[in-house]
């Protein structure tokens, strides 16, 4: 009986449910919800696509792995590749696997160019769902290692670089004064220190037959007449900048609108080399030498001691006075200033000013080792490389010794430390190597800086390695080969090598600076023949000053 009663109950329940369905609505069935897609992996040429990837092959393969099958129709409108200017780059996209892997290919991209790759979260999967988040990465393509110019001998290459760089001072010299413009965009603004380097470059131009001796003499007569009779001076010293038409001072900064003693010393260094080169008894050369002596003899070096202090001061202005208050103290590029001040016929300084002011009674000494090279003087790692160039365009550091340093060791080890730092590349800047090295003062993207191991912002100045040829001939030649043959289409231009470049965030200067171009010509020549070292070393007042300050040749 219990069994039949239980069956009746079940039957009644079924009949009740059936009646309800017939009298009510159909049950609601919710459609499946679109799934969210996650980007599981992303690679470029089998390398994980980290942001700011460097050295990417110019025909990249980008492989993307998703958590859901991708809708092919959604790809092109939601994935983009753009260059730095925002131009779209075409690509082909292929889905594979379960349509959850997307492979993108492009035609050849430009070398050393930054690109931005992005995926919008609007990328749809086959269920209509979006990507979980937007995706964006940048990458930079690799160096083009193909040779840009035909191979020539190293000797021919050095001459070619000197000749092309010489054009900055010869072809681009100011039409009125003949002096060197500060940079290739300076108009009538000329520079005293850079002009001193340019004077020495003109001697090289004559010796290398880039110009004739008579043409060189005529240009130098124009320059020296302008310096003697027209250019404004302050106690015999020249300003950093002046107008190439009028000779009037152009302020370097608010308080620097008068004499610049260091820039003056670079100019005088060049004038002395010119005087020693034009030694013939012909009236034109005799007059040239006399005019140079007049310019040199009127610089009141000792007046820049500012009331007989035991140090020289860098600046003085007629209306600002000693407002800059900048002592010239070592170690930096200014050794030549103290040497020439000691050499002066009428306004010489005593040795105490050199010892107490420049050398700071030994305070400029270092003595520590960096990359196993002992650095006798200066800041750790040596500072920017122009410290070992500007004073030594005329002054030969080889065999030069005083109680503070062996200057062959100082200049050579400074260059080797700078080279070794770039090879180590502790900041991991793309492109630094044993062929891409040299930190010095130069233009950078959006400004100017004195690069050094202590201030490394990823910019290489060609002048740094090339002006170091006398110190590091093998390392400098390796750099020259790379700059000319590999990067030459971007670096080697109308006036030689552009001022600076970065391979890390690809940028190439369009500028040329007198103070960087001049040392390239002069120091390559000193490496090849010692020409400027020999000329400057013949000057009797220079030799007397070296003895006076306690230097010896060893």
From TrEMBL:
<dbReference type="InterPro" id="IPR014755">
    <property type="entry name" value="Cu-Rt/internalin_Ig-like"/>
</dbReference>
<keyword id="KW-0732">Signal</keyword>
<dbReference type="Pfam" id="PF13205">
    <property type="entry name" value="Big_5"/>
</dbReference>
<feature type="signal peptide">
    <location>
        <begin position="1"/>
        <end position="19"/>
    </location>
</feature>
<feature type="domain" description="SbsA Ig-like">
    <location>
        <begin position="43"/>
        <end position="141"/>
    </location>
</feature>
<feature type="domain" description="Glycoamylase-like">
    <location>
        <begin position="325"/>
        <end position="539"/>
    </location>
</feature>
<protein>
    <submittedName>
        <fullName>Ig-like domain-containing protein</fullName>
    </submittedName>
</protein>
<dbReference type="InterPro" id="IPR019282">
    <property type="entry name" value="Glycoamylase-like_cons_dom"/>
</dbReference>
<dbReference type="Pfam" id="PF10091">
    <property type="entry name" value="Glycoamylase"/>
</dbReference>
<dbReference type="InterPro" id="IPR032812">
    <property type="entry name" value="SbsA_Ig"/>
</dbReference>
């Amino acid at each position: 009986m219990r069994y039949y009663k239980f069956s009746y109950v079940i039957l009644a329940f079924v009949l009740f449910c059936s009646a309800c369905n017939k009298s009510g609505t159909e049950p609601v069935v919710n459609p499946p919800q679109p799934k969210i897609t996650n980007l599981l992996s992303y690679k470029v040429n089998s390398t994980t696509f980290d942001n700011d990837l460097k050295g990417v092959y110019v025909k990249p393969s980008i492989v993307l792995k998703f958590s859901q099958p991708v809708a092919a129709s959604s790809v092109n409108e939601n994935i983009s590749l753009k260059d730095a200017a925002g131009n779209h780059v075409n690509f082909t996209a292929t889905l594979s696997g379960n349509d959850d892997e997307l492979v993108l290919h492009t035609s050849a991209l430009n070398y050393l160019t930054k690109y931005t790759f992005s995926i919008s979260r609007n990328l749809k999967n086959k269920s209509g769902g979006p990507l979980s988040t937007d995706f964006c990465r940048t990458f930079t393509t690799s160096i083009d290692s193909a040779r840009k110019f035909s191979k020539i001998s190293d000797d021919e290459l050095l001459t070619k670089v000197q000749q092309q760089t010489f054009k900055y001072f010869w072809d681009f010299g100011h039409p009125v004064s003949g002096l060197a413009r500060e940079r290739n965009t300076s108009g009538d603004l000329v520079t005293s220190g850079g002009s001193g380097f340019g004077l020495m470059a003109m001697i090289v131009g004559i010796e290398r037959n880039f110009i004739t001796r008579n043409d060189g003499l005529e240009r130098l007569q124009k320059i020296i007449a302008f310096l003697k009779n027209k250019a404004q001076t302050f106690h015999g010293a020249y300003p950093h900048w002046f107008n190439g038409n009028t000779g009037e001072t152009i302020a370097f900064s608010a308080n620097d609108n008068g004499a610049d003693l260091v820039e003056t010393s670079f100019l005088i260094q060049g004038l002395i080399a010119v005087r020693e080169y034009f030694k013939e008894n012909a009236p034109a050369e005799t007059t040239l030498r006399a005019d140079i002596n007049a310019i040199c003899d009127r610089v009141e070096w000792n007046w820049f001691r500012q009331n007989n202090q035991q140090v020289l001061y860098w600046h003085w202005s007629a209306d600002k006075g000693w407002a800059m208050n900048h002592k010239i103290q070592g170690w930096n590029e200014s050794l030549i200033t103290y040497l020439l001040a000691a050499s002066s016929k009428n306004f010489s300084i005593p040795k105490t000013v050199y010892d107490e002011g420049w050398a700071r009674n030994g305070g400029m000494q270092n003595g520590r080792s960096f990359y196993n090279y002992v650095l006798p003087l200066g800041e750790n790692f040596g500072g920017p490389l122009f410290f070992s160039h500007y004073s030594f365009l005329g002054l030969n550091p080889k065999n030069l010794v005083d109680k503070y340093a062996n200057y062959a060791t100082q200049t050579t080890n400074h260059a080797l430390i700078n080279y070794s730092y770039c090879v180590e590349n502790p900041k991991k800047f793309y492109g630094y190597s044993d062929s891409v090295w040299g930190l010095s003062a130069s233009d950078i993207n959006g400004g100017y800086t004195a690069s050094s191991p202590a201030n490394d912002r990823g910019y290489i100045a060609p002048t740094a390695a090339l002006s170091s040829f006398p110190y590091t001939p093998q390392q400098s030649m390796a750099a020259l080969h790379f700059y000319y043959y590999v990067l030459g289409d971007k670096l080697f231009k109308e006036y030689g090598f552009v001022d600076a470049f970065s391979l890390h965030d690809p940028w190439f200067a369009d500028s040329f600076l007198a103070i960087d171009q001049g040392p390239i010509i002069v120091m390559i020549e000193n490496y090849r023949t010692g020409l400027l070292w020999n000329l400057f070393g013949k000057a009797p007042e220079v030799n007397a000053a070296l003895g006076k300050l306690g230097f010896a040749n060893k």
